[in-house]
Amino acid sequence: MDLDTSLEELSWIPRPRILALRRLALETVGDLLRHYPRRHEDRREFRGFPREETIGPVCLCGEVAKTRLMRFGGRKIFEAVLEESGANALSQPLTCRWFNLHYIQKMIATGQQLVVFGRVKRKGPRLLIDHPEFEVIEDDEEILIHFRRITPIYPATEGLSQRVLRALIFRLLEQAPVASADVPLPASLRDGEDENALRKIHFPQNNEQLRKVRDHLVLGEFFRMQMQIAAARAENSARVGCRHQSRGSLAEQFIAALPFAFTSAQQRVFNEIKLDLQLASPMNRLLQGDVGSGKTVVAIAAMLLAVESGAQAALMAPTQILAEQHYAVLRNWLDPLGIRVALRTGTRQEDNAPLPLFARGAETPGSTRVSHVGDGVTLSRTFSEDEETSGAQYSKGRLPHFEKPWAIYAVTIGTKKRRCLSPKARTIALDALRYFHSKRYELFAACVMPDHVHFLIQPWPKENDDAGDVVFWSLKELLHSIKSYSAHAINKTEREGGGVWEKERFDRYIRSQPDLIEKFDCILRSPWDSGVAKPGEDYPWVWAQKDEVRRESPFPRDAETSTRDARATRNEEDKHTPNIIVGTHALLYEGVNFTNLGLAVIDEQHKFGVAQRAKLTSREPVPDVLVMTATPIPRTLTMTIYGDLEISTIDEMPRGRGEIITHLLTGDQLGEAIALLREQLSDGRQAYIIYPLIDESEKLEAKAAAKEFEIWQERLRPFRCELLHGRVASPDKQSIMQRFRSGETKALISTTVIEVGVDIPNATIMLIENAERFGLSQLHQLRGRIGRGAHTSHCWLVSSDKSTETITKLSVLEKTTNGFEIAEADWELRGPGDLLGTAQSGLPELKLGDLRRDAGLMRKARQAALELLENDPGLDCPENQRFRDLIVERQGQTFSQVS
Ligand code: ADP
Ligand code: MG
Q: Regarding beta strands 312-316 and 580-583, do their DSSP bridges make them parallel or antiparallel, or are they unpaired?
């Protein structure tokens, strides 16, 4: 038995248990052993029953003296009265209550010994615990597993009681090779808890051991993570990029022409970037700085360095509005310098397509004959019918990231009733697949067989939602597109009616590079292997992207070839080639050939994923990458999410900014705020009024927005107001923003579409309705839209929610405008988890470690990993070879590397 042994193979676990475990995604010995306890109960000695309410939950043991079931109206209440075992006269019985849980009464009976866990409340003369967690003590041979020890309590499970799960794990621990589960740690991180760590975390001998072993396992998780990060970093710096050497005179001219001087922080950061650009290894740098700290100008100066060195630069923003704004700002400053700036977004294109930077290579002919096919190679696996059905083992339940951005899917669609497609129809089907290639997905390989098709696709982004996040085409939509696009035409050629395609099903998503290659080969060999085509015979319905795409070596070409190529391309391009291209994420997906991209700047990185960054840097030569974020994040998170980046921080605001005064208002104080607002508008200032989306549904949302708008228009009459939300068509959005920027419109009633980066210095008021619905970081972002000019600005957070939670949260903003402080507070209030969508980071999930609570351990682990790889990059020393697995495993886990 090893950790990968499937639980099914252990004959002693009954089938129903196996199924229940599977529902928890516990399939192997390792899965079950790493199903860590949520908490432990000290059941060695129970404390006496309390006489009063307790502040937190307590663990008590007693005997059930009586039970009763009561009904109140429709409600059923089951009560069990516990008496302390060996109780003295003073101790008071404790009543446990459960509401509407009829099955409890079947579990608890008079005379039983019960362990309960919950908070004790006083109600009149009685002491109660409502809905305690409980366990009946059964005095059998297993008693020593469950009692008289520090007992593990597992995350709640349906269909598996604590007792059953605990016994399973206990037994497994006695048999399994526990030691091999341990992550190898370098000496600096070891603390003598390596032995039997898994056993100790489940069944510790004492609290001290529990604490130590937890730290040990957390260190293991963190170290693994940091080794992967450090390896990514090392890998990156080993790659060949371009030196961007320039005198820097363009940047100097630009800086000199600015109506202000760089702050010293801006200057420092600019120098850091300049040094990076000059190095041959590709830059991978994060520029952090609070909203309004002036990151954009630094980025522009950096882009000018790249341009002067003869390369092109790209600036990517998460939303249309922001891209448009950047474009306007860049034109404004760079036109006088003779720099050509182009705009490219999903919906708007400032000059004529295709831009040379993204020009696609020659169209691949549809019937690319795949040269290696039929050369007698025997396949280990083919797409037999069995294979297709066994695809079901990747069931939805096992794929938390079932539809994940940047995943590649292997899809098979059968024809209805195994209808056989004529040659013409096959061509149509293949054309349909190719039609959406580079529009809605990237197609890697396709093969149309007589009665089914196989293909490999990676869905592309479709649009941005209101928050500016990227929304991808769903598989369902894609399959529908392909099917409906082809079905009609096929029926027409074949002069038939009825359905063409079967209901969709797809095999699975691709987990790793080898997996991709294997699937790729299977698809391309399918006709020959299945006997549809004879060896050596041509089969025109197989399609692949050009061979080198798939065969691309994971190693960079040597620098000389790259530069030579780049230079040649440059000569071909004429004077209309833009030097800088501004756009949304569309820049990442339009075509595949970046030929001359020297520097890519990604604004508001948190809206993009690591995978997208990887997409960008998978090109050759690797462009220098500068990502910017105005979302300050706590340091521990920086070490993980951005762990593979060098970090520059602008920690100083430009001088001469007006102050921002923030106030919390309740709904009934709105009147005063409106009066103040009108005053400001009369003084010539402008205002943002933000309301949260009320409803998900488009129709309702538009209606709510319209209603809101009417009310505000009335309140602010005669000042001109306009309405902006995610459903406003793009060209209109653009002109609405234009009118606001020019001051024609005085107040903008908006959803959070204006969240990031919008820069209008004359806007000094921000009123946020239902402020409690937003997270702190988002409110901080929103507030960053004001206070950009010299005037004093006002931010009003309107909320009728008077709960302490809300007030605590919102008052953080009253106290500080420092983004880092807000980020820390936000983290503390919200707990770990979704602050930035760690899921996006592509890093392994943490089972035990808590980024916040264990920040110190993370620092240690990072230090150790960086040192290790610095001293021994290839992990060649005998004592370091054991760490190699930690890095290799990454391949299977991050598919961002796949493309
Ligand atoms: P962010 O860091 O939020 O992206 P921006 O780059 O949009 O900030 O800058 C905000 C505003 O501050 C812009 O109008 C910009 O022109 C201005 N600005 C940038 N740097 C300075 C500076 N050193 N002194 C004064 N104003 C500056
Ligand atoms: Mg910005």
A: parallel
